[in-house]
Design brief:
Blueprint (H helix, E strand, L loop, with lengths): L1 H11 L5 H28 L6 H33 L5 H78 L4
Helix pairs in contact: 1-2, 1-4, 2-3, 3-4
Length: 171
């Protein structure tokens, strides 16, 4: 949703369409809201409980840093794009600068999307191998324990039949 929103913003800003900007911004903000909490949860889940406060502090710090650096960076890029298009009208130059800044944001969000897929795939493979190995090990242990239990049960049954044979009078 984030990439799609930024793509809509980048493509529609040269047309000066307010409706497209609203839809694009809505997609971006929805995507950020739906991504941030699960990402923080997934990151903190890998930490031991004793380190969770430090993980939360680090994540909050990086969110604050991004909130400081991002707008400054994109405002600078927008101003550079606007200055490069000063031969156009002011509105067209502003739209050109905004389009450049949102196009860069779309590229960054696409890179983040690719990284997320790579990370998710590796995490899935890792979790799959961690689940399969104990299951296989547990299955082998269960087979061994069942065999031992069967041997004990068989030995106990043989001993029990011997005991009964000894106690019962011969016919």
């Amino acid at each position: 949703a984030i990439f799609a929103g930024f793509a809509i913003l980048a493509l529609s800003s040269s047309f000066l369409s307010v409706q497209a900007v609203i839809v694009g911004a809505l997609l971006v903000f929805t995507g950020v809201g739906m991504t941030l909490t699960p990402a923080q949860t997934a990151g903190l889940r890998t930490l031991p409980a004793s380190l969770n406060p430090f993980g939360v502090a680090l994540m909050t710090t990086f969110v604050q840093l991004a909130a400081c650096i991002g707008p400054s960076l994109f405002t600078g890029i927008m101003a550079a794009g606007q200055n490069a298009a000063m031969d156009l009208s002011f509105e067209a130059a502003a739209a050109q600068g905004f389009s450049l800044a949102t196009a860069l944001a779309a590229v960054i969000s696409a890179a983040g999307l690719i990284c997320a897929f790579v990370y998710a795939r590796r995490a899935y493979k890792r979790s799959e191998s961690e689940v399969i190995a104990p299951v296989q090990t547990n299955a082998k242990v269960a087979v061994r324990e069942n065999a031992k239990a069967g041997a004990r049960t068989g030995a106990a049954a043989a001993k029990s039949s011997q005991d009964r044979a000894c106690k019962e009078p011969a016919r």
